Amino acid sequence: METIAIPAINLAPIMPEIILSCIAMLLLLVNVFVPSESKGYLGVLSLVGLVATAASVVSGWGQPVAAFGGAVQLDNFAVFFKLIFICSAALAILISDKYVVREEINHGELYPLILFATVGMMLMACGMDLMVIFLGLEVLSISLYVLAGFNRGSLKSNEAGLKYFLLGAFSTGFLLYGMALTYGATGSTKIGNIAGFVATNPQVATNSLFVVGMLLIAVGFSFKTAAAPFHMWTPDVYEGAPTPITAFMSAGPKAAAFAAFIRVMIVAFPTLKHDWTDLLWILAVLTMTVGNIIALSQDNIKRMLAYSSIAHAGYALVGFTACNPEGVAGILFYMLSYTFMNIGAFAVIVLIGKKGEANGNVQDFAGLGQKRPLLAAILCVFLFSLAGIPPTAGFVGKFYLFSAAIKSGYIWLAIIGVLNSAASVYYYLRVMVYMYFKPSEEDFDWVGMTPAIAVCLLLCVATTLVLGVVPGTVLELAQKAVQF
Amino acid sequence: MESIFFLIVAAVAVLSSILVVTCKNPINSALSLVMTFFCLATLYVTLDAPFMAVTQVMVYAGAIMVLIVFVIMLLNIRVEAVKRGSHAVFAGGAIGLFLLFQTVWFLGRGTLSGATGTMDRAQVVKVGHIELIGKALFTDFLLPFEITSILLLAAIVGAVILAKRKI
Predict the structure, then answer these.
(1) Over chain A, what is the mean pLDDT?
(2) CATH: 1.10.10.10, 1.20.1640.10, 1.20.120.1200, 1.20.1440.20. Which one for B1-79?
């Protein structure tokens, strides 16, 4: 019987995950002793945990450190994405305090589940081993399935949870099959080793196992980014899930899927680059067009934002197709700004909503501009940003994504993207038309601000405008993050 | 000889997994699933992975299937002929077949070789299968092994949230 030599363990690169997991488990314990009317304190505690995690993430900037035999690597790319995830989790927690009380789903488990989902996302961003990425995705997905069905009394929420679970499990199968085939073709699950194998054995590019593995991995990640034609789950899940969770789902997990997608494709499959950029070209065009065209006919605002989030995944795919440092930096910047502008828009929807998801239609926003001018103006900022109108973050993000595409020679892709962006203005402006030019039937008396939502709105508006007016610093950071 | 055995087992596995989806009675589906699991376990044995085979039988064909059958019986699911739109089935089937042929054509065109590692049959027999898995779990796959605990915790919390009568 030989003894197993345990390799040297460096916990520094996964310190953020460790801190956040411990906080989540602590919350589960504390939750037992907290009476149901003061569950809000759990939210405060989880915010403290997220801030501590952010501090530990930031310390990883600059010097890439790998650990566990190259299974994880905390580099600038991972740090940037992890900060996006932490922001999205924190903003989602800020807007849920009022919502959970109103919908009578004030269970303390909400916060640990959001934190576990964040741990999963962070593992996806720093994973350099297909197994770590897969398990991170599973931690994220399992938490999200539950969160989507968190409103147990609501039929729509149940439907959202079940639908997401069934389709998500199905797509996980594709992803895992792709990883298995890639492992079979290259003999390793570590992305670094796969890259090494591909460099020394270029003929692997003609190996069907390898190619099919790459394709199946692309399918799995496309599902999570909600790219057409793998987007079918998005509208139903986004509509049925509790609104703060929808906000969280549209920002964080999408960014996480992009993080893992980008890293796997660029590092592990460089020899197939021409093949997968062709594939991404088609995916990007389909995703943008399908998302925008169907969004035009939506009356329910959560469904509309769901289709708009599909379209935004398409814009990010444009940058991915370009596959140059500018494009990937553009995706980082876009995901950051999308997190703030989209969660901001959802925060306003949370405020406007009544118990049982009433007021989910565009018509219910009629007269908001007269009755609640400040709130309407704030929503306008987010909608302008989502539509990509200067001086907001959305404009700058789209500008960088499309210019990266042109730089790589994808002129037509950029043109299709701009046309799509122009079409999207219709359905964003439609909300504004209802807010300002339609007579009000409601008095909006029930709309009451809480400190948490006020902080969230303030943060979102400030970030959306600051990133739109002076994007230089953050863009520089994003460019520094694109070194694998 | 070995490839003939593989083909037989694989054919049974594919057939029984098709039965899982097509059977109208859920109990029949569940039993077909057991059959699929057994065929997979057999394939693991031929791949010199006895531990995997035993785990497959004990965990999937044993524990999980018992659970599934129990749930089916407790819920007393009535056998209902699900009405299906014939157009949708036809269109879906046609697209599926087309994609299948495309995949087979593509696979037949390229090479299908895997990278061979250091673990061959002699090595597995010499060291032992369980020892090799244990060693891999505590060295190369230490972090994934630990992440699984978080995954299971999240799943348990989720199951309690969704299923408990009063929380």
Answers:
(1) 90
(2) 1.20.120.1200
Tokens standing for residue A480: 């520094």
Q: What is the pLDDT of residues A263-277, one digit of tens each?
A: 999 998 888 888 889
Integer CA distances (angstroms), A404 to A194, A254, A330, B143, in order: 28, 21, 8, 36
Q: What residue ranges do the domains of chain A occupy? A: 12-481
pLDDT value, residue B77: 66
**Cβ of B161 and A150 within 8 Å?**
yes
Structure confidence at residue A167 (pLDDT): 93
Question: Mind giving me the DSSP string for A216-280?
Answer: HHHHHHHHHHT-TTS-THHHHHHHHS-HHHHHHHHHHHHHHHHHHHHHIIIII-GGGHHHHHHHH
Render A373-389 in DSSP notation, one character per residue.
Answer: HHHHHHHHHHHHHHHT-
Determine, for residues B153 and A4 on separate chains, whether the beta-carbon distance falls below 8 Å: no
Show residues of chain B in contact with A112, CB under 8 Å: 157
Q: Domain locations in chain B?
A: 1-79, 117-167
What is the structure's pLDDT at A359?
Answer: 58
* Contact criterion met (CB < 8 Å) for A107 and B161: yes
> Given pLDDT bands bounded at 50, 70 and 90, which one contains residue B138?
confident
For chain A, the first-to-last Cα distance in angstroms comes to 41
ipTM greater than cut 0.85: yes
> pTM here?
0.93
Distance, in angstroms, between A467 CA and closest chain B CA?
Answer: 35
